[in-house]
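name: query_chain
kind: protein
chains: 1
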Amino acid sequence: MRDGPIIALTLVAGLVFAPLAHAAETRVSFGSPDGFTDIDTEGSSLTVRATLDRIRQVLTDLGQRLPADQVLDIEVTDVDLAGLVLPSRQGMSPQRVLTDNTRPAVRLAYRLSRGGRLVASGQENVTDPTYLQNGTTHMSSDTLRYETAMLGRWFDARLGRFASAGRGSF
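structure:
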């Protein structure tokens, strides 16, 4: 009976890590962040590096919905975060103001391959002109909630048909 805890831990580890064993390899790179339209995170709790890391994580998480025999390469070539940072006034922190005209946009190129054979590719300027009208997004605590939701919808539209059956929507 001393093997009971070891068996239980092995089962728990298998449940936690099993989904990762059946997911595609997803590689995300960034062109030249210094030239991105709006990666300035003033008025936000994120640094530029943290913003890029968060975008990488969002895209990597989406790629986990693809089967293990696929490889997804994404190069982000521009980012324009939702809103516009207004200059700070003396003694005040800069604020990011959201309007219908300041929608999020991410320019990217993607390649999806299976067994070394290209199955999908493209270059797109992913944007969401109605980002302020999604009530559920407003409730999110994610600092990049508009970009996260937008990229999730893009993935569903472009690559969702290649995703594994039974994986949830982002």
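note: Residues 4-21 form the longest helix (18 residues).
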